[in-house]
Design brief:
Blueprint (H helix, E strand, L loop, with lengths): L2 E5 L4 H12 L3 E6 L2 H11 L2 E4 L5 H13 L5 E4 L10 H26 L6 E5 L6 H4 L12 H20 L4 E6 L18 H12 L9 E4 L2 E2 L3
Parallel strand pairs: 1-2, 1-4, 2-3, 4-5, 5-6, 6-7
Antiparallel strand pairs: 7-8
Helix pairs in contact: 1-7, 3-4, 4-6
Length: about 230
């Protein structure tokens, strides 16, 4: 049995990824800032829940201690993220604290648990908006979307994936571009993009890879995306 924790999993890609992994046989922890929301989603899809705010060191430590005491962990999906489009200091700090530093907080807390797994995996939700390749390729949608702070924060997530793969070779690290998806990410309903089920499937696939799966890579729909 594979045990997976997904941060920011009460809606959108996180929730749908959790649902698909439960269906695939994983024991799934819903990591949620709001404990009541997390418990409700967990009850709905047959998962477990734990209060986890990736911007709060004490919350992160307590969450992974709870998971450790209840069976351990095989897979971490760093899904929690925010998109704030302002270009000012306070909003930039909030975005980087959540998207990049939050990834570090959760990963560092998870590593002692993951090192005891036979097939440890960390899946980091990145974005083509943080890819130098995609943002310079006229055929890619990312080349037309201005995302100064958000794109920079996701470039940081991608580099974290590369560096962690190098310094923690016993754990597989994968960055995912989930695709332009119809979710409420960024605080506004988005009717455009592909169904959330399609994009979440790419995350679930990375979280379910076997020991022979790739590490230190950036994937879009299962194919390599240039950094």
């Amino acid at each position: 049995m594979t045990t997976t924790l997904i941060t920011g999993a009460t809606r959108g890609l996180g929730k749908e990824t959790a649902r698909q992994l439960v269906e695939a046989g994983h024991t799934v922890w819903i990591g949620a800032r709001d404990a009541d929301q997390g418990a409700a989603v967990a009850a709905e899809i047959g998962a477990r829940s734990v209060q986890l705010d990736v911007r709060d060191d004490d919350s992160v430590a307590a969450a992974f201690a709870h998971v450790d005491a209840n069976g351990g962990l095989d897979v971490l999906v760093n899904n929690a993220g925010i998109a704030v489009w302002g270009q000012n200091g306070p909003e930039a700090l909030a975005v980087f604290d959540t998207n990049a530093v939050g990834t570090i907080r959760a990963t560092e807390a998870a590593l002692p648990l993951l090192r005891r797994s036979a097939n440890p995996i960390v899946v980091n939700l990145s974005s083509a908006l943080g890819s130098f390749t995609a943002t310079h390729d006229p055929s890619k949608p990312a080349s037309t979307v201005p995302a100064v702070v958000y794109g920079a924060s996701k470039a940081a997530v991608s580099m974290l994936t590369v560096q962690y793969a190098r310094v923690v070779p016993e754990v597989h690290f994968v960055a995912i571009e989930p695709g332009y998806t119809a979710t409420e990410f960024g605080g506004m309903p988005n009717p455009h993009g592909r169904p959330v089920e399609v994009s979440a499937a790419t995350i679930a696939a990375a979280a379910s890879a076997g020991p022979e799966g790739p590490t230190g890579v950036f994937l879009e729909d299962g194919q390599m995306l240039g950094w």
